[in-house]
Write a structure and sequence with these properties.
Layout (H helix, E strand, L loop, with lengths): L3 H4 L10 H4 L3 H20 L2 H26 L3 H26 L4 H21 L4 H26 L2 H53 L2 E6 L4 E4 L1 H7 L6 E2 L9 H15 L5 E9 L5 E11 L8 E8 L1 H50 L5 H32 L7 E3 L1 H18 L3 E6 L7 E3 L1 H17 L5 E12 L2 E10 L6 H5 L10 H7 L5 H11 L3 E7 L3 E12 L24 E5 L3 H11 L5 E5 L2 H10 L4 E5 L7 H9 L9 E5 L6 H8 L3 E4 L4 H12 L12
Parallel strand pairs: 8-10, 14-15, 14-16, 16-17, 17-18
Antiparallel strand pairs: 1-2, 1-6, 2-3, 4-5, 5-6, 7-9, 9-13, 10-11, 11-13, 12-13
Helix pairs in contact: 3-4, 4-5, 5-6, 5-7, 6-7, 6-8, 7-8, 11-12, 11-18, 12-17, 13-14, 14-17, 19-20
Length: about 725
Amino acid sequence: MDATQTAVGSGGKSHGPAWKLLINGATMFGAVLAIVHGVIVSYFFNAAWGVIFAATAIALLLALVVNAVRRTAGDARAERRFNLLQLVLVSLWMSSAIAIWMTGTRSAWVVAITVPASWAIHIIFSGRGELKVLLRVLAVCTAPMMVFIIYAAWVEFPAWVAIACSISAFSMVASIGESALYSSRNFVELRKALAESSSIKERLQFAMQSTGDGYFEVDLEAMTYKANAGLANSLGYTPAKRDVMAMRDMVHPNDAQSVFQSFAEVKSGQKDGWKQELQVRTAVGGWRWVQLRAQVIAANDIHGRTLIGSVVDLTAWKTIEAELRAAKESAETSSSSKSQFLANMSHEIRTPLNGVLGMAQALEAEDLTSAQKEKVSVILDSGKSLMALLNDVLDLTKIEAGKLEISAVPGDFLHTMKRTRQLFQATAEDKGLELFVRYDSNFPQRLSYDPTRVRQCVSNLLSNAIKFTAQGSVEVAISAKPLGEGKFTVAVDVSDTGIGMNADTMAKLFNVFTQADGATTRKFGGSGLGLAISRQLARMMGGDLTVTSEEGRGSVFRLTFRAQEAAPAAATAPASKAIEPARRTLRGLRVLLTDDNAINRQVIRLFLAPQGCEITEATNGKEALDRLAQGDFDILLLDVHMPVMDGKETIRRIRASDRWLDLPVIALTADAMSGDREKYLALGMTDYVAKPVDQRELVAKMHQVLGLETLIAPARSA
């Protein structure tokens, strides 16, 4: 027996002082064997030799155990002393065996052979040293044994049996050597496996502790669980093995059902694990959010089925998440309030502006002197400027709220650019500027794009170019770069010979409410919204708006956007060369005008008076329904925001009646936010006109909804 096996604890660490390690079964059994063998030596020789043998053997054994402990603890010198002491101890026992053999009796031979045989077996199964040391000690044991066997065979048996015994002895020694080699290899592999297992265990523990806030194990057979020190301490509990049912008090009631249902499925083998976020109770009674990851480890020879789980504390993340959610809701509420405020302000501004511009339009149609016409023109221009500013603010709000949409439709882009140039031709000529438009000869004939937003961007660039250019020219260059599959990047370059800009001005040019400097604002006017909105629109269309400029030498703005090639337009019948009279006009048309604002009603009356319409007025929806019940009307012009009954309820009741189901209804409203037109059409309005009302737009809409033909102008030659 190897007394060092129980003398050394697991992990290579000794358990207490060396003298305590000597008190173990293996050491005491080895001492008993030494004493008993000393008695045998006394039998063959005398008592003195027996005592000397026993005392020496026990002393060597104890020294061997002490050095074995020190060797396991990492003492290199103890390793050498251990090997030497083991060799001396074995040699002592072999010397006693040889001495007993030499007495010549057959009983002595049996005893002598038993000693080396038992030591050989002991060394093979308990040896831990290097292979060379192991073979050296075995040689000390097996050499006497082989000599004993061969000598006895040739003395006691015939030659043919002696030869067989000799071969058997050599084979036995060789077999012992192979067994020792095999045992040594197994021990080395086992030691490596144990070291690797220990290393893997340490790495896994480090990984679990590093990636989470702790872990726990559940014995699915004993139904007990134990958390590691890190997890237990973080929750304020003492690390200890507990019954699984005690976990119910630790799980929040909102999570208990799902947690223990998953646990039951794992225990029954329906699944191998699960992942879940839940709240757990701390020792002081609070709750913490954690993320649980649990996985079943299959049973083996040592352990039954075990559930291993890692826990990550999510309390801080949940707090941040709640704060972000609250901030998001606050921002959305603020944005909604801002949008509602702007919508209300837009409505309140458009309503009086409708009166101002409406009266100015009506006044412009009268017989005025040149001075009076100029004053009316100033009123109209100022009103249009105010409307442009209001529309810019609304556009910016829509973009920031993500409510502005790009609507691409097929069309002739070059035709759109030519019409846009015509809008600014007179202004350019008044300043003595030349306005050019040029384009590549291979430019696509038709493209799918948003003409309204493109025209808005180009108009803003042309307006600025003409505004900031005192002499010279403004040029628009149009090109298209193919991207494949019928897609193009369209570029519109607007260049001028105006005042130009320096680098500092260009750096802040596209900021909201920003112009070059205060002097520029005072001299040229403007809100500084146009370019900021145009850039955002360009980016929404897949392009951008950039600028290159040199102070005193002009600027070049480049607008780019994505467009898809469109199919050619269907052929249409040639236009008449002469003006044909309309089949029908608005004269005699019975119009029910409903608006709570007297000025608005007066403006519409002035707009329709030249058309010869018969107008009946109502101040709210209830009055409008009463008028409809009393007589027949061809069309209803309906305001939306009115007392008693608003336009929304009015149109619902009209469309609910079979009598008025097909009555054309045009909404006249100051609601001009994104989606308002679609909203009112969905309610049942036939069409929509935003305030301030433009006389020409209103008349055109009335012709359109009534299906009337207007004058057909002759086609112009290109």
